[in-house]
Each structure stands twice: as C-alpha cells, then as structure tokens.
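Feature request, filed as a ticket because there's no other form

It would be nice if the structure record came with a short human-readable summary line next to the tokens. Right now we just get the raw output. Example of a typical job, pasted below so the devs can see what we mean:
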Amino acid sequence: MFMNKYTSRFQTLTTNAAQRLAKNFASPVYLIDAEGITRRLMEFQETAKQIYKHSIVALSYKTNPLHGMLNILHAKGAYAEVVSGDEFRIAKKLGVKNSNIIFNGPMKTDQELYEAIESGAYINCDHADEIERIENIAKQMQRCVPIGIRLCFVSEKHNWQRFGFAVNQDRQQKNNAYKIVDYILQSPYIQLAGLHAHIGTNIRDINQFAKLGENMATFATELLEKCNLEMSWIDVGGGLAGVSPRIDEKQFSPHPIPDLKQYLNAVISPLLPYLQRLSNPATLFFEPGRTLFEPFGALLTRIIGSRAIDKNHCGFICDAGYNILATSHVYNHPLHIPGPKWGNQLTTFYGPTCNQVDQLHEAMELPSLTMNDLILFYGVGAYCMSFSYSFIRYRPGVLLWHHDDQAEWLRYPESLEHASQLEVVPVINRAIEYV
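Raw output as currently delivered:
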C-alpha cells in the first residue's frame, strides 16, 4: 500500500491533461495531490503505532494551512499543531477537538493562552516569560495548568539554537531548562507534563533524529529519577526532509522521499526504555510538515515569452513569479514537462514581475520549449503556498488534484475584488490638504 519507493504522481500528468487543467481552472495554478498526501499520512500513523502504540501525528499548520486539505487529513485522525492564535482558530473552525490541538510557538497572547487553557489544548512553552504569564492566568482561574517545555540541546551544533530552554549546566540563564524545571516545581499553578523539541528543517541525516531521541530520553529520565516526574507527553517535533534539492546542492533531480520506518525507528528506539518505565503511558507526538506536505504540492505555469541569453542558453518567462514559487530562492524544485519533448538546451525560467531577482530555477539542460508550453514545478507543498504573496500579480488558486484533469478548488484565485476588501481610500478633498 505504501510508498517505499516514491515516484511523484505529478510525473504522470500528460500534455492534454495539463492543458485542460489550465483551460478549465487557470494558469498559473497550484495543485495538491489528494491521494499522495493521504497515503503519506496513513503510512506515518501506522508505522509509528507499530513501534509505539501511543504515537500521534499532528499536522504542522504553518507548513501549509489550506483548510480543505487539513480537513481531509483530520478526518484520517491527525491532530493539529499550531503556532499562533490565528492557526488555533483555524483548527477550531475546522472542528478539531480541543484535546487534539497542540499549541506551540514563541508568541501567545494572554487571551490565546486563556482560551487554550480553558479548552484543554496541549501547550508547549518556548521561554520563561510565557511560563510566568501562564502561571498568572492559572492563578486567576484558580487551577493548576499542565504545560510542556521546549528543549534546546545546545551541544548539538547543527540543531536550531534560537528556540526553547537550553539543556546545559549554566543555571544562571533565565532560559535554562533545569532552572525552569525548578521554577515550575515550586509553583502550585503550573505542572510540568510534557517535553517538546524541534531540531531544524529539511533534515536528511537520520542520525540527527536518533540523537534527538537519545537527548530527550536522557532529560526525561533525569526528571524521573531526581524529581519523580513522569511526563504525560513527549513531542519530538518535525524536521524530516522532502524531495526538493537545495540550490547549494547543485542538483536538479529530486531526492527520494525519506523512509518513514527508518526515521521513526531512529527517534522512538532511544525513547522506549524511558517510556516503558512510566506508570501511565505517555503520548508520543510527531509534527510532520515538509515531509508530509512538500512532495504532494505542485505549480502549473505557462511560458508566455522568451529571450535569448546567448546562442546556447535560452530564457523563458512564465506566468508565475518568485512571489508565487516563493521557496525557489532556496530550492531547485523538481520539474515535469508534460508530454514528449525533443532537443536539448540550457534553460532558465523567469517570472513575470518587474524584479531583477525573479528567477524560478537554476539554469539546467532541458528539452526544447516554446511559447504556451506548460511547466509543472513539484515538491512545492511545504511553505511555498504559505510564503506566497501578491506582488504585481495576485496569488493563484489551489486545486485538490485527483488524477489526469480531475480536480476541484481548494482556494480560489485572488482578484482585485478580494484585495480591495481591506483597502481604504480617504476622501480626496481631505487628502489634498496634506499636499
């Protein structure tokens, strides 16, 4: 059933199907592979539970918060992982149970914290000031609030160092993990119930996840043995890679999709000795983003012009720019050119905006192309749609793609009407007074 050997379904898109999609919907347009992303989620869930049955997959909303897609995945049992009050409200709007929401992130307002506490959501804290604010809110509510803390393993130099509580012996630091544990233990209004970590993004080295599991297990075991503290949840975050190569890799072919069994064994195995010591089973959370969404998003764009760079190098202007393919400054997203093509030429793709840096891909050898040809960039399901913005041209819509030319809207294209809803035009006579 599952994709042990990944081949993008986007590579099966024919010329006729691509043309019909562009005609019936739009160009440019984003596509989300409905079958592919659902199967990837189910593989993640089933493989994790085979290793540790109390494993839960929570969707990283920041990676791609399209409501219709999230709704499909929630229907398959996925929790929500949110990092802002806005994302928290999306989860609530989609009908996600309060107890199925994990609230992370460095900024949570008092009102958002109150709502999260009241609803019984999982709260993972990033810094000491946030914990003090939760303590004050809990005191006003006259209750003891379970919280998790995000850990930063500073000994691992490849790990992100900006977020969370540093796991080192310098207890003078306000954001030291041991110092904050002591603080929580002395308070009647907060209870340390969970540990959280997120070590980075686009990681292909499975050994880094094995080290994450070891570090989490070591810290949790120390709390168990020295403080008699049992965690109710362990949250190992996300960070597993997708298929798009980084520009600095000087590679154009897609990477194989990371093997989930390898990844999950690497993370969970070091944690099992600790988990098996607990009197009550702890929930093990995973927060996949890139590895779940990225391979199953694409952008269909049309060539609308060309320019000769030199006799052996052709540049093509597309109807989608770098504001639409927003992650193209970091990744050489894999390409599919629908239909048979012949010839060979060095090719660079540019966007239609009036900006010198509007380039969609590093120059590469491709079959000969011409006006009105359709190009499919895939591996764009993570962050690309989240980061896209209206600049000179409005953002395109998003399709839930089933197969061939079968698709339906997930988000309509932006228009002047949509953009104008937030605009205010002052009374002209009043404005003239300032001139």
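Something like this underneath would help us a lot:
The chain is about 30% helix and 20% strand.
The CA atoms of residues 136 and 189 lie 8 Å apart.
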